[in-house]
Write a structure and sequence with these properties.
Structural class of chain C: mainly alpha
Mean pLDDT of chain B: 80
Distance between the termini of chain C: 41 Å
Strand content of chain C: under 5%
Radius of gyration of chain B: 25 Å
Number of domains of chain C: 1
Order of helices and strands of chain C: HHEEHHHHHHHHHHHHHHHHHH
Structural class of chain B: mainly alpha
Radius of gyration of chain C: 22 Å
Number of helices of chain B: 9
Oligomer: heterotrimer
Chains: A mainly alpha (106), B mainly alpha (197), C mainly alpha (500)
CATH class of one domain in chain B: Mainly Alpha
Distance between the termini of chain B: 55 Å
Mean pLDDT of chain C: 89
Largest interface: A-B, 82 and 95 residues
Largest sheet of chain B: none
Order of helices and strands of chain B: HHHHHHHHH
Helix content of chain C: over 70%
Shape of chain C: globular
Amino acid sequence: MVATEAYVALSGVLFSIGAVGVLTRRSAIMIFLCVELMLNAANLALVAYAYRWAGTGLLTGISGQTAVFIILAVAAAEVAIGLGILVAIFRNRASTDVDALSEVRL
Amino acid sequence: MVTFVILAVVSVVGALGVVLLRQPIHAALSLVGTLLTLAVLFVTLQAHFLAVIQVLVYAGAIMVLFLFVIMLLNIEQQRKEIRPWLRWVAYGIGLVAAVGLIVGALLDPRQAPDAAVARAALQGGNALLIAEVLYFEFMLAFQLVGVLLLTGMVGAVALVQRRRPPPGGVSAATAREAVLTDRPGRPSSHPVEAGGR
Amino acid sequence: MTLLPEGFIVWSVLAPALFLLGFALLTLLLGVFQRDRGFVAAVALTGIAGAAVFALHFLMEAQRGSAESGFGLRYLADAHASAFTLVILLGTALAVLVGQGTLERLDLDHPEYFPLLLLSATGAVVMVSAGDLITLLLGLEIMSLAVYVLAAWRSDVRQSQEAGLKYFLLGSFASALFIYGIALTYGAGGHFDYASLMAVFAATGFEAHITALLGAVLIIAGLGFKVAFVPFHQWAPDVYTGAPTPVTTFMAVVVKTAAFGALLRVAATIFAGLEAGALGAILPGVLVVLIGATLVVGNLGALLQAGVKRMLAYSAVAHAGYLGLAVVAAGADGMAAAGFYLAAYTLMTAGAFAVLTQVMDDDDRGDTIEHFAGLGRRRPWLAAAMAVCLLSLAGIPPFAGFIGKVLVIQAAITAGHVVLAVLAVVTSVVAVVYYARVVVAMYFREQSSAARLPERPASRSVDVAIGIAAVGTLLLGLLPGLWYTLLEQGQNLLVFVSSP
C-alpha cells in the first residue's frame, strides 16, 4: 500500500496543472475544463485524507468521502450555469463571431 | 505500489493534455481519461461508491455535457495565445504551487494509516455508510444542495430562455404601452426563432 | 444505525433563510402568471421584512446571552450571524427597490429576476450563519451562481454577457481554490465544522500545521476573490462596470457582506486556533500583505478612473481593504467593527449606485463626471443624497463611514497592526480626492451640453431606496451606538479563547 502522502502529492500536482491551465488558456470553455480538473484534484485529496483518518483509527473518515459527494453536486450545478452562460453568449452572435467571443481577457 | 505509479502517470499525462492540447475536444477527452483514472484511485483508497459515482456523474454526465456544448457551439482550436512572458509567469506560479503542495503533503509528520484498520472502518466506502453521514452530519448540507440545484435550474432557464427583441427593437415606451393595453409586453416569438441568428 | 441525537435538528434557527427561500419560490410562481412587477417586488420585500423580523429576534436573544444554534453548531444564529443577516437583508431590500424602479426602463424585466435575487440572498444568509466549511461552501455557491446569472442579465449587451462570463470563470476558479483549501483543512483537522477544527488546531501537540496552513491560505484566497482582495480583485472593475447597474448594486453590497461575514467567522475560529500554535505568525503575515496591497491598489485605482461606476468599483476594492483590518483583528472586536462598517458600507454604496441609475441613460450608459455636472441645481435632493453617500464613503466626520473607519482602525491597533492602521489613514486621505471630485462637479460646475441628464419621470421606488440610504447613512453617523451596542454586546458562539 502506498502512503496517503503520495496520493495527496499527486492531487497537488493535478491541482497545480489545473491552475496553470486557468492562467494560460484563453478560451472560456478551456478555462472551465481546467477548473473541473482542479475540483477533481480536491476530491482526490479528500478521499486520500478520508483513508488516512480511517486508517489511523481516530475518526471513521467517511465524512471526507461524503464531502466529495456534495462537491460533485456543486460541480454539476456550476456546470449548468457555466455552460448556460456560454450558450447564451454564443446564441446571440453571428457564427463568424464565435472565435472572437471565445476569447476572454483575464 | 506499481498500480499507483501507473495510475499517477496516466492521470498527470491526462491533466497535461487538458492544459496543452489545442483542440477543445481533445482536451475534454483527455480530462475524461484523468477522471476515469481518478475513479480507479478512489477504489484503491476504499471508496468504491464514490468511484462509481465519479464514472457515472463526472465522466458520464458532466463531461458529456461539456462535449455536447463544445460540438454544439463548434468551438475550434484557439488562435490567439497569451503573451509568452505571461505564460512563463503562469508556469512559475504552477511550479511553486506544485512544489509547495507536494512538500506540504510529504512533510506530514503523523503516523501512517494502517490498511487493515482503514478497510475495516471504511468498509469499501459503501452507500450505507455514506448515507448515514449524509443524513446526520451533513443533514443541513444535503438540504442546501437542493437549494443549490434549484438555483442552478432557475439560472440556466433564465439565461437560455431569454427572448430577444425583434430587429429594430421594441422601445421601453411601446412595451409599457403594450402592458397597459393588456397585450404581452414583448412580442412573444417562438424560442427557436427568437434564438436564431 | 446511528440515531440523530436529541436536539440536533433545529429548524427554527434556519428561519431567516427559510423565509427568504419560501418567498423566492413564491415570486418564482408569481412570475408565471403575474405581469405586474410592482406586485412581485412588493411580495419580495415582504419576504425580506419577514426574514428580518426573525433575524432581529435572534439578535435580541443573543443580547440576552442565549444565542441559538442548530445541527451541532453547524448553523449559528448568534449576534454575528444575525447582525450580518440583517445587513444582507438591508442590501437586498435596497437592490429590490432599485431593480423595481429601473428594470423596465433598461429593458431587463424578466420574471426570474426577483427569485434569483432572493435565492442569492438566501445563500448569503447561509454563508454568514454557517458553522462548518461544507455549509459555507454551499451558501457561497448558491449566492454566486445566482449572481453570475444576474451579471449576464443584459442579453443584448456584450459587456454584460462578458461580465457574467468573466465573473463566472474567476468565481469558479476561486471556488476550486476554496474547495482544495477545505480538503487540506480536513486533512489536517479531520473535521469540517469550525468547533471541532478549532479544538483540534488549538490542542497542544497538534503537528500537521503545514497542511493546515496551506488550507487556510487557500480558503483566504477563495473568499478573497469574493471580497476582491488584491491580487484577486481584477474581475471587480470589469464585472461591476459590465453588469447592469441594479445588479451591481446588489453585487457590491450583499456579496461583500456575506463573504466578509464568513471570512471573519473562519478567522475567529479556525485561523485563531492555528495562530495559537507553531508557524502561527505566518497567517496574519499573509493577511497583512494582502490587505496592505488592497488598500493601496484600490485607492490608487479609483483615483485614475474617469467613469463614476468604475470609480465606485475600485472604491469597493478599497473598502475591502478597510474591512480587512477587522479580519486581522478577528475576535469579538473585529467582528463588531466589521458589522458596523458593513452596515454603513451597504447604505452608502447602495445609495451611490441608486443615484447612478438615475443619472445614467436608458442604455445603462453615461456615468462620466460630466454627467454629474450641475446636478446640484437641477435635482437638488438627488445631488444631496449622492453627496451624503460619497462623503460618507470618503470617511468625512458626521457620516457613518467615518465611524466605521474609526472602529476598524481601532480594532487593528488593538490587535497590534499599527503599520496597517497608519496605511489605512494615509490611503483614506487619498480617497477624499476622488469622491470629492464628483461632489465638486455636482455643485460647482455648470451642466455641459454634451452630457445631459435624461428626461424622464423620477422612479418612486428608487427614490425610496436613495432616501433610506441617505437618511440611514446620516443616522448611523450621528447615533452609531444604536447599532454598534447590539453588535458589541451580543453573544457570539465559537469565539476562540486562547488558554493562558
